[in-house]
């Protein structure tokens, strides 16, 4: 509109009206233009559509709200003047991957504390403990995790004396790789007032050396020593959260289900959100009922910080882990016939805990590894489902060792099997030693789960395993470990196709957290969380998927991480 046209436009109007209209028009003409769309063009894009079918595209249009506006294919007209245009240079684009079961602060602390996950013998671990102590004279307590007596081929649990040989004058407390056992030296047990008279709580066990504690504490007994460890300062938690997010973004994770958030963890996440430092999306499950009710109150929280944080449910435990013989089995361990594992709750107790959460519409996720623990949970859910109707999406975390006769019970109540493919690659030798091949027909049974119409959600259980989701994708389709063992895969009948495995880390993990309308796909309307990666995971040999490199990670239509630069400030 030209200025000389204004008089005719205002003809016949009063002066007051003219002044008001002129001011309004001036404001409109002088206002900054609204932010337009972002176009990422020239990519080889893959996503799953609403029917779970893999579709391809060549460009992605992101709206001003950070959501996918349109998928464009060859020949589709591109916007004439997008606000921002990125040439993908033919690189592969996939949705941001979701870890359906991780421990966010645990990953960050592992990066800051003593990490024994790469040690292959007790001697290597002792060298690393001594070096860490020398390099870190403070704080007084040495804390870490990652030991694995199975990987060391030790044939026994380590003892306090094994640490005392290299560090005697400072307390040392080290969690096992799976987080279900702890290893203390004599100074740590003395600080915790552990004596020969100490008793393990229900759901825990104190390993003994003669009549005295050996230094290893399993499951609930870990708290006997853990309560003596000085808690991290708030600023230390903030640093751990920052490190964890950097690691996740670099590996291609844009969302995670945090399985076991305590009050201090939640506070760190809220501080990060308040300061605009929450880069990934965290779907939180509280560590038990007390933090759940103190944080969320009478129901799941809304999405906070532009869809970055939500507490939706509770994490409970039914048993321990296979490596520490805490997994609760229907029959004794083959390699320790006097043990059958640890059941943490009676049938009535686990039902009461689950019912208390469900009555306020919290989602319930329960850790169960052994076949007896899974049987207990299946029975509990079958009973509770009669009272708590509707779309509950009960979750069983790990679901590792299942009696084959129980697998169909998952499907009958649409129970989500939240599984971690990398556990199979790490555990298959140990599982055979613990139980014998003939009792493992329902172990890590991903294909059988799908055949029984069981919703699958995949993750890694980091920092128990690497957070890298491409390791999980490779294992899901090969059933082989990083060394290609066993050739052809362990129980190869349970292999998945790449599309099925991909669904587990995208749409399946989103569905498991009631987030399928916003996460897991690049269909229009979903949040524009995506990756640019260095290879086509749907066409390369399956073993090569493990080595996939993330080039860029985008969250909500904005670049959050780039390989050459690291994290990008929001």
From TrEMBL:
Tell me where on the tree of life, at the top rank, the source sits.
Bacteria
- Where does the Amidohydrolase domain start and stop, copy by copy? 87-558
- Spell out the SUPFAM superfamilies in the cross-references: Composite domain of metallo-dependent hydrolases, Metallo-dependent hydrolases
Protein keywords: Signal
Q: Does the keyword Metal-binding apply?
A: no
**Record keyword Signal present:** yes
Q: Which GO molecular function annotations are given, in alphabetical order?
A: hydrolase activity, acting on carbon-nitrogen (but not peptide) bonds
The signal peptide stretch is 1-36
User: What CDD domains does the annotation carry?
Assistant: YtcJ_like
* Coiled coil segments of this chain: none
Write down what this protein is called.
Amidohydrolase 3 domain-containing protein
